[in-house]
Design goal:
The protein is α/β, with parallel strands linked by helices and 248 residues long. The chain has one domain: P-loop containing nucleotide triphosphate hydrolases (Rossmann fold, 3-Layer(aba) Sandwich), CATH 3.40.50.300. Helix content is 38%, strand content 26%. The chain contains ten helices and ten strands. Strands 6-7-8-3-9-10 form a six-stranded mixed beta sheet, with helices on both faces. Strands 2-1-4-5 form a four-stranded antiparallel beta sheet, covered by helices on one side. The structure holds adenosine-5'-triphosphate and magnesium ion. Adenosine-5'-triphosphate binds next to β2 and α1.
């Protein structure tokens, strides 16, 4: 059984049919990349998994550890140990780094108290100290307002906030977007370490070259349809697919 499995998912924004029979699976422990151009349907796929509205999932199914989570509400999906770091890197700009991390913890405690946390979530949320060990940069800047952090630092803070939740599957929506190559390398290292610690990762990127470096397996989506499914190695060697759908 795959950790996450999408079968023939159809998703809509009002009457516009965006995802068409999207089937994909993410295996426990791997880094799976979902690649595609602007507007291909990457964010829509992540939002469908996370239970965000819109889009509206009208066909197909989404299973996590064999359990049907299709169209469950976002709190329920997150209680299964699924975290999404959205494209816009949601941090509270007027709060410090430490306050941002603290709030993520409060959120987690609230969901634990209302009994939403399921016992089968294997990766407990990190403590603030563990987060600072992972991201020394955030420790140095813990009293700085999040809004004044660089793009790369904000990305790390957004990832750190997700890791404070119980996370078995971490979904990252274009974590490299807008970052300089040196900073991309830092974020890449962080993702690699998170993966090595056992958290499964679904990485959405337009930057195919960078994503292929980290990924075990890749999917390419184009106009809402999966057009490639295979190992990162196969995609690296498949020049035609890369040129046609990824423009690289
Ligand atoms: N809220 C919305 N309402 C209507 N259409 C939307 C909405 N969000 C996205 N779309 C459309 O759905 C399609 C897929 O968008 P999506 O955001 O999933 O693309 P993407 O692959 O994440 O692209 P990008 O790399 O630019 O982030 C696009 O044609 C987009 O215009
Ligand atoms: Mg997107």
């Amino acid at each position: 059984m795959s950790l996450l499995e999408l079968a023939d998912v159809d998703a809509y924004y009002d009457e516009s049919h965006i995802l068409r029979d999207v089937s994909m699976r993410v295996e426990e422990g791997e880094v799976c990349a979902l690649l595609g151009r602007n507007g291909a349907g990457k964010t829509t796929t992540l939002r469908s998994i996370a239970g965000a509205q819109p889009p509206d999932v009208r066909g197909g199914s989404i299973h996590f550890r064999g359990e049907d989570i299709t169209s469950n509400d976002p709190e329920d999906v997150s209680s299964h140990g699924i975290s999404l770091v959205p494209e816009e890197r949601r941090v509270f700009p007027d709060l410090t780094v430490a306050e941002n991390l603290h709030l993520a913890e409060v959120d987690q405690n609230v969901s634990n108290t209302i009994g939403r946390s399921l016992p089968d979530v294997q990766h407990e949320g990190m403590t603030t100290e563990e987060v600072y060990e992972e991201f020394e940069r955030l420790r140095e800047r813990r009293e700085q307002k999040a809004g004044t952090l660089s793009g790369g630092e904000q990305q790390m803070l957004a990832i750190a906030r997700a890791l404070k939740q119980n996370t078995d599957l971490l979904m990252l929506d274009e974590p490299y977007e807008g970052l300089a190559p040196q900073i991309i390398a830092n974020v890449e290292d962080a993702i690699r370490r998170i993966s090595e610690s056992g958290t499964t990762i679904l990485l959405v990127e337009q930057n195919a070259a960078a994503a292929i470096k980290l990924a075990d397996r890749c999917y390419v989506v184009d106009q809402g349809e999966i057009v490639f499914d295979g190992t990162a190695e196969r995609l690296r060697d498949d020049e035609e697919t890369r040129e046609r759908y990824l423009g690289v």
